[in-house]
TrEMBL record:
ATP binds at K38. Residues 9-269 form the Protein kinase domain. SUPFAM superfamilies: Protein kinase-like (PK-like) (SSF56112). It catalyses: L-seryl-[protein] + ATP = O-phospho-L-seryl-[protein] + ADP + H(+); L-threonyl-[protein] + ATP = O-phospho-L-threonyl-[protein] + ADP + H(+). Keywords: ATP-binding, Kinase, Membrane, Nucleotide-binding, Repeat, Serine/threonine-protein kinase, Transferase, Transmembrane, Transmembrane helix. It comes from Aeromicrobium choanae. Residues 497-506 have a biased composition (Basic residues). The keyword rRNA processing does not apply. Residues 377-397, 474-506 are annotated as: Disordered. This is non-specific serine/threonine protein kinase.
Amino acid sequence: MAVRLNQRYALDEIVGSGGMGAVHRATDTVLGRTVAVKVLRSDQGGDDVGRARMRSEAHLAASIHHPGVAQVFDYVEDDSTPEGSTFIVMQYVEGHSLSQLLKERGPMPPEQVMSVVEQVADGLQAAHDAGIVHRDLKPANIMLTPAGRTVLVDFGIAQAATSEPLTDTGSLVGTTDYISPEQVRGRSATPQSDVYALGVVAYHCLTGRSPFRRDTHIATAMAQLHDELPPFDPSVPVEVQELIIAMTAKKPQERPATAADVARRAAAIGAASSIDLPATFAVPMPARAAVETGVPLATATEKAVVTPRRRRPVVAYAAVGTAVLVAALLLGGRELLFGGAPVVPDVVGLQASAAADRIEDEGLTSRAEVVDVAGTPKGEVVEQSPSPGTEGTDGASVTLSVASGKVRVSAKSLIGKPFSEAAAVLEDRGFVVERDDVTRAGDTGDVVAVDKSGRLPDGSTVTLSVAVAPVAAPAPAGSGEASSGSGNSGKGNNGKAKGKNKGKGN
């Protein structure tokens, strides 16, 4: 039975840890819902400053109401145990951190980075409207839901104008990779400090590296003060570069005035509607870790170790007597229990979650990489390595190529091509093509513009603007050309028409 706090919250595995304590996935046994419980470290349980920090975090985060900020449900200071348990009960965000995504995927496309910026800035604005500065914005504190939405977590060192100071004078508060120059100088953080941190996060997302990281924390902090942002790859759109450069200006007054301004600019540049995630992120598999009742809290908060599930035994396993089973385990009788070495199953065509289950049932592990494949449902496995039937070893990894549900369109590769050729390229990729004729001298029949580009949902409609020649204007009446030949004919017609009118009149 799991450890229960306050006779209500049953702790499960650890999903995160930091300087103040560990965060557990847990069950609220009263309301029957999954929650996250942040427990103050046992060595700080009786520390007034430690409790004050956690109390402040709970109160500040609870005052923000926004889907992009994790909700706080409860705060408890429990003196009934020797450890003096202090904990916050929060919304459990089903997903993974931006930090994990960067480790697995590396650099992100510009439209995806702008999606991160827009979403996080929107959540930050809600915090700033409540008078709260996060002060520790970094990829590890940005959670990603399976729907590709961001949720801001960990207000452990956040501060409001009314907060009591909980750090020593002159101490550095924040993570040096993302801390603002004014914080390095020991000045109070402002909303512009969060904007700076988000700009550094955006650069990290775009390039796969933190721009000011150096060999030591002190060197990194000094780089925040004095070093310029490293240059961007020329392929990065100018508007994206300009926004990140503005957000990371050394002087706060030179940055965008508000997080809302940042969100608007990111949206205008062309932020994706959601963040593309690997299939392994879209279907998170929580670790299975049991914590027995009576275990001291310090032990219960140690990091859980997750191992792959064992393969299901062969059918004969159910009929094996207890004595034979024990003997087999003692003698390492794998052939008797599991039928030999694990064999890679055929999972192509399955959804990623079902494929992962099949692979784990064989005693193997899986990792997914997202690929763009036209005409394939999102999340479906299109390829695997090793191939089906390959013998492996316990815990060996099977790589799954999983359809993203999106296909990339490059406007540059289409502009200048004849319409028929460009349309054929798009249709081969599963897109619906529409044509919009644009009057233009020269380039007749060629594509001159594309209404959207980047990674688009499979089967989207793409409109190609095609140049058509201007229509020749009619010659003005009375000109020499009009009066010759056709002009006489005109007169005859007019005369004939008048004669008819006179006849009718008489």
